[in-house]
Amino acid sequence: MARSPRKPRASATVVQAAPPSPVDPSSVETVSVRMYRGLLGDCFLLTHQLGDRRFRVLFDCGVLQAIGNGKDATKAGVAHIGAVVQNLFDDTGGVIDLVVATHEHYDHLSGFILHFEVWQKFTIRALWLAWTENYGDALANDIRQGRSKGLAALAALVETATSGAPRPFGIAQDDPALVESVTQIRDLLQFYGEIEPAISGGGQALTGAGTGTGTGTANPRPAGRPPQVPPRSCLDVLDWLKSKVEAANVRYLEPGQQVRFGLDDRLKATVFGPPRGRNRLLQLDPSAGPAREVYLAQPGEANALATTLQLRMDGDAAAAVVDGGYPFAARFRRNEDERSQDPLARLYFEEGARNAARRIDGEWLGSAETLALKIDGDVNNTSLALAVEVPGRDVLLFPADAQVGNWLSWHDQKYPAKPDMPDTPQESAEQILNRVVFYKVGHHASHNATAREKGLELMLSPDLVAMIPVVEAVAKEQKTKNNVDGWAMPYGDLYARLKDKTRQRIVRGDGDVQAESAAFAAAGGRFTLHYADGTAEPLWAEVAMVCRPA
Hints:
By secondary structure, the protein is an alpha/beta fold. It is built from 18 helices and 19 strands. It has helices at 72-92, 106-114, 116-119, 138-161, 176-189, 234-244, 278-282, 299-314, 316-321, 336-341, 343-349, 353-356, 365-381, 404-409, 429-434, 472-476, 492-502, 513-523, and strands at 29-36, 44-50, 53-59, 95-96, 98-100, 123-124, 127-130, 250-253, 258-261, 267-273, 385-389, 395-398, 414-415, 427-428, 436-440, 465-468, 506-508, 528-531, 540-546. The strands form 4 sheets. The chain has an 8-stranded mixed sheet. The protein has a 7-stranded mixed sheet with strand order 9-10-11-12-15-16-17. Helix 4 packs across helix 5 and helix 5 runs parallel beside helix 13 (365-381). The longest helix has 24 residues, at 138-161. The chain is globular, with a radius of gyration of 25 Å. The termini are close together.
C-alpha cells in the first residue's frame, strides 16, 4: 500500500515529495535515454513519457575542444555538435523541462558556447547544479577561487611561452622540456574554454591570462552573467544558465538529498555526489599505497606557481615587489651583465648539449604540469552524480565524470541523509546500486572514473545496459609525453568488465550500429535500442524501457 503524502519540514534540506501517483492502466509509461553520437563529450536527453505527455531532461551538452595541430577527428566532433544542438531544439520544440549541468568542463558545456544563438531561443524551466557551483557557499567559493588562480597561472605560462620571445622564462623557446610542458598544459586547458584572470585578495588579476568578468570580491560574479552576452568559458555557461532560469527553479544539490521530479513527480533523484568531505573530494585515483595516491591542487601550489610565473615574467622588477619570492637574497643574485663577468655563470649558461643537460632552469615546469593535471581531476571530482529512480524502482545512474573519491563517498551515508520524518525509510548506496539498470559510463570509460567493488560490481540487474560517450579516434589524438598513444578511452580492463556485466549491451559514441543492435537483440532484456535513422553514423542512439507498475 502506498504511503500517505507527508508535508516536508520547512527546515529540511531534503525535498521529500509524495510517492508516485497511481497510473491509468491504459496509459503506457516509458523512460528513454538518448545519447548524441560522434562526440567525445556528454550530451544526454532523458525523456519520461506518460501517455501523450513528456518531461525532458538534458544532462550536459559539450564536446572536446580541438587545440593543437592535426587532430582531424577532434575537429570533426567540434563541427558535429551544431547538428546536435539543432536536433535538440527541433525535437523538444525548444522547451527543456530540466537542465542538469554536471561540472565546469568544456566537453560537457561547450555546446552552449559554440551555438549560443540557438540556445537563446530555448525555454529552460529548471536547472540543477552541484553545491560546488553555489556562490553563496563558502567552501564552494574557496574551491573555485583556488582553481581560478591555478588556471590563470597556467594560462599565463602558455601565453608567455608562445609569445615569440627567444628565451621565455630564461629558457630557449625550442627547449624540449618547455615545448613538452606547454603542449601538455595547453591540452589540459582545453577543458575550460577561455581562462579568466585570477582575482587575488587585493583585487588584482594575474597578468597574461586573458579577459573575463571576475569582480575582485570574495564572492565572484554574484549577479550572474547578462543573458544576452555570449559565454566564453564554462563558468560563463553556468552563469548564463542561472540567468536563463527563474531563480526559484535553480537548485544546488547536496549529497544525500532525494528530489522528486518528472511527470507528476514520478521520478526520484538521489544525489550521490560531489562530497563535502575534503578527503573524498581530493581523492582522484584508486588507493594502492601512498605512491599511487593523487590529490587535488592545494591553494599553496597555485600560489607558488603564480609567484614563480610573476618572477619569471617580470624579472628584477618583480623582485622589488615580491622580494621574498626568490630563494636567494639579493646579494647572491646576478643580472645579465654580471653573469657575463662571472666565470661560473659563464660556464653554467654556456651553449651546448653537455651543459644544457646540467641546467635546472626548466625544472620548475614539472610542477606546472602536475598542477594542471590536479586541477583537471579536481573539476571531475566535483561532478554532480545522480541516481534516477523510475516507477518500479529501477535506477538510471548518471555519475558525469566523478572520480574515485566521489564514488567512495556515496557509501558514507544513507539516503535520504536527513529524512523529513522519523519513520522515513533510508537506503544505502549499495542498495540503490543493486537496482541500476542503466549506466552512463563515467568520464568516457577512463581508468579512474568507475569504482569497481564499490561501483560496477554492485550493479546486479540482469537488465543492465551502458552508454559510453566516447570516440576512440578522438581520444587517441590527445597525445602527450606521458601518453604517447593518446588517452586510453575506453580503458581496456573496464571495457571488458562492462561487456560481461551488460551481456554486450553497450552503446558507444562511435559504436558499430549493426553490432550494437545485434547485441541488444541477442541478450534481450527490458531495454530496446533505437537510432536516429538507418545510416551508418546516425546522430543519436536511444535506449527505452516500459516502467514497471509502481
